[in-house]
Design a protein that fits this description.
It is a peripheral membrane protein. With 276 residues, this protein is α/β, with parallel strands linked by helices. It is 34% helix and 25% strand. It contains eleven helices and twelve strands.
Length: 276
Amino acid sequence: MPDLDSPAAASARLRAERISLSYDRTEIVHELTTDIPPGSFTVIIGANACGKSTLLRGFSRLLSPSRGEVVLDGRSIASYPAKEVARRLGLLPQSAVAPDGITVTDLVARGRYPHQSLLRQWSDDDEAAVRDALEATGTSDLAGRTVDELSGGQRQRVWVAMVLAQQTDLLLLDEPTTYLDVAHQVELMELFAELNAQGRTIVAVLHDLNHAARYASHIIAMREGRIVAEGAPEQVITSERVHEVFGLANVVIADPVTGGPLVVPLRGTSKKEKGS
């Protein structure tokens, strides 16, 4: 458990302090405490239904804790007006739904809503933000099409563009590579890595352990609503930890490209056989 009085905790832009999160009175996340290191590429990993996406929803204020609090920039996130939260962090939810008939450009432009007011209407800066977001996600050629006629992978990239158009320096991404083929997954992960290198703090829920190991600077491993390990990839992604969290028989070797951990599942084994 992180020390809330430590310098790291004091400098964290986003942290959870003993939060519990529930759906329909069923507690999913149990008194969890963690800090998101500023400037990090943090990836949350764990088996299905372990609380990864629930934690991200708590971080974004989509789900209010039944106990504890989420702190954003030194204040309880619950104390901010909604627009102020949206100016400080951008969220890509797991299952986003676009209005019927909306064009790609109009959807991405909705990322500029937090910056609008009675005194500040659509501007050249907004136009440039939308254009840059479309270019960054490779969706400029889709700008005039309606979202409902796109493939799943195209839609996912358009939703990422909308989040980028917010131009926040804190991004929360729930399974951002869903529906994408391998090439587009890598393309998007490289984009996130570039944004992180430019100074943005990124928190992502990922299913692909090797994407997590290759791109993350900080990993949070969850099991049954609690954190079982967190730290650098080489500290968290070990063969023993992967087996503990996922019930997967595996070996971890050095990634031939990065030198970091690379998870290789073993054949002919199952959770039942391993007693998990």
